[in-house]
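Sample A.
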Amino acid sequence: MIDREQLEAASDAYYAYCGAAWNDLDPKAQTHYRTRMQLGLEAFVANIWRPISSVPRDGSAVLLFLYMEGRGDYVWLDRWDVQDRRWRLAPHARPTHWAPLPPPPPHP
């Protein structure tokens, strides 16, 4: 799930946090840091979906998940309508899980 570019960026950022330049690090040590980052990022991604009981109901946009027998997985972006007490885009849906939105990409 984590591609090489994401892994490299995470490893570089972690090592920079440690106060050193990634490119100055020995290749064996770089491999060690990449392995650590891969394990950490995979664990994060594996646990990104949360039970619907913990979804914020303050109007924040979130990703929702629902599995429908015979139809498969559905993922969509929605907001809870506080006044009407329902999802705005899929008011009759009963999602089982939710995930926070990732931050937007950096501006050029």
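Sample B, a different protein:
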Amino acid sequence: MSKTSDETFTHVRGELAWTIAMSRTPADAISMTEHLHAADEGRFELLGLVNDCEVALYWDYFWNHVVAAGFDVEGVDDLARDAPEEIRYAGREDYFAEVDPEDWDWIHPRHQWRVE
């Protein structure tokens, strides 16, 4: 039986919830984690959190750029809207070349190697 990404990254939800709970309430953090995880599929890939866990960054495979989205207990803001020009990059490698890990609250484990 092959592992799905949910099985492969089971620790991610706990790590993400813990990080969010440091800025928000633990109960809200669980709900927000589920919304962030649900949006992390298909066209959008969760990269990490910034701005004191107020903004989630996703890679948009359709437009090949980073999308910044607010999130709360109700869900993640519309990821399909146009991203501001200043956060568009030619590729994930180019984007992560510009990243300072100290500016992020949390980086998804599948991308941490890119900024080390």
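Observation for Sample B: The helical segments are 5-8, 10-21, 26-39, 92-97.
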